[in-house]
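README, section 4: Worked example with a bound small molecule

Sections 1 through 3 covered apo chains. Here we extend the same pipeline to holo records, where the ligand is supplied as SMILES alongside the sequence. The molecule in this example is flavin mononucleotide. Nothing else about the input changes; the structure line simply encodes the ligand pose together with the chain.
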Amino acid sequence: MKLYRPLLRPLLFRVDAETVHGLAIRAAELASSSRWLCSSVARRHEVDSDRLAVEIGGLRFRTPLGLAAGFDKSARAVPFLAALGFGHVEVGSISAEPSAGNPKPRLFRIPLDRGIVVNYGLPNDGADKVAQRLARSHACAPVGVNIVSTNRGPSAAAEPDEAVIGDYLQSVRRLQPVADYLCLNLSCPNTREGRGFFHEPERLTQLLKELDALDGRGVVKPLFLKVAPFQSLAQLEAFLATVEPARSVTGFSINLPPGKPAGLITPASQLSAMPGAVSGPIAAAAADWTLRELYSRMDRSRYHLIGSGGVFTGEDAYRKIRLGASLVQLMTALVYEGPGIAATINRALARLLEADGVQHIAQAVGVDA
Ligand SMILES: Cc1cc2nc3c(=O)[nH]c(=O)nc-3n(C[C@H](O)[C@H](O)[C@H](O)COP(=O)(O)O)c2cc1C
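The generated complex, written as structure tokens:
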């Protein structure tokens, strides 16, 4: 995979971003159908350090580094993606009904910022089809299922609150038997009102109440809530207070902020033709602030954090762990650095822990918060 950056990437970057994304998923899907291929790729990318293993909610992750939601949106290629050295693969976001997402073009690379502008609008095959796929899957790592409410397109009328919440509940019911953990995407920048439906705390309270009561036993898998970076401490504390009564919540994951952050190198004239949120290194500052403040203020006997946003190196992953993340995720680095990135980061992370005399990764969580 040393050839990815000098040879393959320049070729791929000449082709439209969404076309390449589709081709990558198709290739990984084909590779996933061969157990032999997946196990030999897994052996080559194996994590060879027990220091990196993480346990959360009864799940064991061989490394804290996972693949973020949005790459394998409909769970087509989990076995091969897991074999690349990821400690977990989060698929989705998946909605109760299939969705075509936003009109194209809706995915753009901004190489000057090593980022991606994303305005997909949550296209996916829907909970039924994905549940069937995952039931037949054979991944060598835990699989997280990221759930969102159905995007019915830009011309659809806004739905009543009960319909949006019912959409989440239907997906949770359908997908939790085939998931190792669930993550509810509360913050998708492409949903209504810019900051998303759950900006109103009463709606989140209602969803969490209904989840706690789901089918008389609540949610039976670890459940994370994925939120946009908070803009103030008051907002962050209000969120924690809203979530506090809910029994089902295992922790929080941090999404991209909506819109274009300040400080991008890509010229504004180019960015103006690219609607959407920006991933990569520019997303790190807001995500890291939220990570540290959540870690400092949350009940750490109840909750765990998943950090993402600009993880390209072992140092980036280690920084997020030291700020409070028990798990970290990446997606943009896979596009810019290629399929060997997870193994490279895992090895670097193990070296960093060793150099600091840290016996086990759990001891590093939150030390800088
Ligand atoms: C192309 C693309 C699609 C994404 N789709 C989703 C999604 O469907 N659901 C979700 O929760 N997050 C989605 N995200 C956010 C990622 O899961 C992740 O939190 C974010 O990209 C930050 O990590 P990165 O800088 O390593 O890419 C998407 C990001 C990108 C770049």
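What to look for in the output: The pocket of flavin mononucleotide is lined by residues 68-70, 73, 92-93, 107, 116, 118, 120, 122, 146, 185, 226, 255-256, 279-280, 283, 308-311, 330-333 (CB under 6 Å). DSSP finds 13 helices and 13 strands in the chain.

Section 5 describes how to batch many such records.
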